[in-house]
Amino acid sequence: MSDALIEGKKLTKRFEDFVAVDGIDFRVEPGEAFGFLGPNGAGKTSTMRMISCVSPVTDGELRVLGMNPATQGSEIRARLGAVPQEDTLDLELTVRENLLIYGRYFGLARPVIRERADELMSFVQLTDRSGDRVDELSGGMKRRLTIARALINRPELVLLDEPTTGLDPQARHLVWERLYQLKRQGVTLVLTTHYMDEAEQLCDRLVIMDGGLIVAEGSPRQLIDQHSTREVVELRFDADDDRAKALALISRTDVPHENLADRILIYTADGETEVEQLGRSGVHPETVLVRRSSLEDVFLRLTGRTLEE
Amino acid sequence: MPTLLATRVVEHQAHIFRKFWRGSAVAYLINPILFLGAIGLGVGGLVKGGKGTVDGVSYLAFVVPGLMAASAMNGAAAESLWPIMAGTKWIRTFHAMVATPVGPGDVFLGVVAWTAVRAAIGGTLFLIVAALFGGVLSWWAPLAIPAAVLTALAFAAPLTAFAGTQDTDFRFPVIMRLGVVPLFLFSGTFFPVSQLPSWLQPLCWLSPLWHGVQLCRGATTGSIDPPEAVANVAILMAIVVLGARWGIRTFTKKLAT
Predict the structure, then answer these.
(1) Could A97 and B257 be called an inter-chain contact, meaning their C-beta atoms sit closer than 8 Å?
(2) In this structure, is residue A299 part of a structural domain?
(3) Contact status of B204 with chain A (Cβ, < 8 Å)
(4) Is A267 found in the same domain as A193?
(5) Looking at beta carbons, which residues of chain A come within 8 Å of B7?
(6) In the prediction, which pLDDT does A200 show?
(7) Pairing outcome for strands A213-218 and A205-210
(8) What is the number of structural domains in chain A?
(9) What's the gap between Cα B116 and its chain centre?
(10) Is the model's pLDDT at A2 over the cut of 80?
């Protein structure tokens, strides 16, 4: 268990008075896809920037690839691929030139970079745009180019900070599909996200962060099993009176539930049966939806808040 | 400690330059021709009907080194303010660099070193054009090129360091109007400092540009005064070193916090 790719112990990041990361413990094993899930401001990006060796650790311990970021940042970065939250591409250069220049930051020989650039453009499906200026690309294409760029040094560890935030569903699926390919090639992925579907799709294991702390840890399945029920019933009401009445009735039972702005959630092993019982006790919502539990529910149950607000 | 990794940043800058060199070539070649024509010959023609001398040389020969050092300063100032904001904030290319083995100090040193390369190219072209105009008097003139490079560095290092502390470009026009332009006009560029009121004259020692102009003028007119030249070089180098130390700090703070 000593060969973790990343290990954080009591890892802390403070900005003057503000504590962004409050003493978290985690480890990432080789070959896994590891996620930091949480709302904006949870401390995900600060954690990621410490792992990327661009932001110094305030307190606690951090080892990346067995090295210390404080003294060996440059050596560590030479073996990482970093996909930052905001694109940092050279807008006035072409797709291909962006890859060539970035490869030189790693000190790679030009013929090697040229060969890898061709491979990578094909990997992220940008070969036919290789001569186009980056500012002409769509958001999804820029993201794919940023991912390709992060792979130019053949990293064993790729760090992705909100890889699909701001992309449309089609563009997101294309990015996921490429990341899944990488994972199959044995590359270790560490990503942050505030999309639970992204975490469920990509992560073998994840931690849920809130307010700079890790509030839960496990595989998506484990987290759902531990912190939520198998199914969730969503009840929506048109009239506030009906809703208040229903809430009073539900509160009298010991059924676990959450009262959200637009709906009431009921946690249960069997949604259909629960709906029938509620109907018998006089709860008649306008719409009823029975669905499987997701990481969103885990987060809600752990923190009492939704992820995206 | 920033090392040779800074050369990788220079490569980035050089790549952009090679791609867009046509725009710069205009500035490099046309501007000296315009300035030498207008100021050197046009204004110079007024100095006793074109027959008079300034500090013992023709006005054209007097103003050539002034314009050469001043254009090194102007070029360095232009490279060290808005393009830095583009790297740290607008396009964020510097953030891409520090995600690689290149560190914040390397980014600073690379960017400033590239300004020196540009000053060398610009200075060489300026000197050739000035020689064709007949404004270069001495075989020591090529020494004006390293003098122009040192002048450029003395502006690039502190201005780049300062730009690294800023989150907006609000203060940049102020630096240009209240810093660069007055230096351009009053550093012995267009007229000898001896024309100024005597109580103002010692202030020229505070102007980095004046030191650069003195060095360039010594080289192109062959009137170099070694002890003073050593002082000029020492002062400019001190500014470069202090600016670089400050810049490595400000870039580290900006790019790696």
Answers:
(1) no
(2) no
(3) no
(4) no
(5) none
(6) 87
(7) antiparallel
(8) 2
(9) 8
(10) no
